[in-house]
Design goal:
The complex is a heterodimer of chains A (about 240) and B (about 110).
Chain A lengths: L3 H36 L3 H10 L3 H12 L4 H12 L1 H7 L2 H5 L5 H6 L3 H8 L3 H4 L2 H28 L9 H18 L3 H17 L4 H16 L14
Chain B lengths: L3 H26 L6 H24 L6 H21 L2 H19 L2
Classes of the chains: A mainly alpha (about 240), B mainly alpha (about 110).
Chain lengths: ~240, ~110
Amino acid sequence: MRNNNRGGESLSRAFAASVPVLLGYVTIGFGFGLLAVNTGYPAWFAVLMSIFVYAGAAQYIGIGLFAAGATLPEIALITLIVNLRHAAYGLSMIAPFGVHPRARPYLVFALTDETYALLSSATPGERADGRFLVLVSALNQSYWVAGTALGALAGALIPFRVRGLDFALTAMFIVLAVEQVLRLKKALPFVVAGLSAVAAKALVGDRGTVLVGMLIAAAALFAFQPRGAKGGSHAEPR
Amino acid sequence: MLSLAEALAASGVMAAIILFCRALPFLFLAGRKPPAFLSFVEVYMPAIAMTVLATAAYTSLDWSAPRGALPSILAGAAVVLLHLWKRNALVSILGGTALYFLLGAIFIA
């Protein structure tokens, strides 16, 4: 099992897959570290949050709520609403994670938007490789924690802004959406999902766009899917 | 502003809730034969999630100043074209991000 060659190959593949997340997480993590320190919390607190909370949007919103003196029930409810979408990610990861029971607790803990993006579009061979799954997840988290630490330390010294590198995450979502178009070979799910996101933004604003957009899209597509497609007759090779 | 001790306690609650969200399907559905909706979710969720996440990056832009949105639009289009052409994720992402930088310097002075 601990064959060095295979392990090395898993690592290089995992690293190559994770490079776009490296750019985005270091930048956005840096911003989070800055924000936490500028709000008045110590650098170690920012790093601790990135290790144990590990959810980008929720951490930014959390600092905002802490600064505003929000109550615990408010913080809990908003965190739940912002992160409920992660339950949908888990749904499509039950089978791939199920074959790696020892790694599963960490894989579930570390299932962010970006890690889900990489793991759900991994090849069947990569999904069967528990090392690859863990390495992608752990590399991504290490970028997030490193970015947070750098930002928190920099924030203690000088006020700072970095622009542009976070576009790497948008670009990654676009690339993975294109890959899904090529896999499903249908336009409808993408048109519906795009329109759902726009509708969700209009309905609930930026904080709820992703969750509400996914719910609207899933409900609409499930209601209107072709008759023959129900009951597991999908032909997708997965 | 919450004190450090209060913020630590609140962070603990946040961590527990987020872990709960991520673990939810594994707690209640692992080992069962998935109902029709779940096999639907498994096939379509990646497509829905990627499209919504990508679209949300655009709906969150400030559209009252469309000039500021131009770098994102053009770089996003470049990512799609690059990817259809070369089908290499790194080339598409790094190329698009480099273009975004360049356009940002031009359009957002």
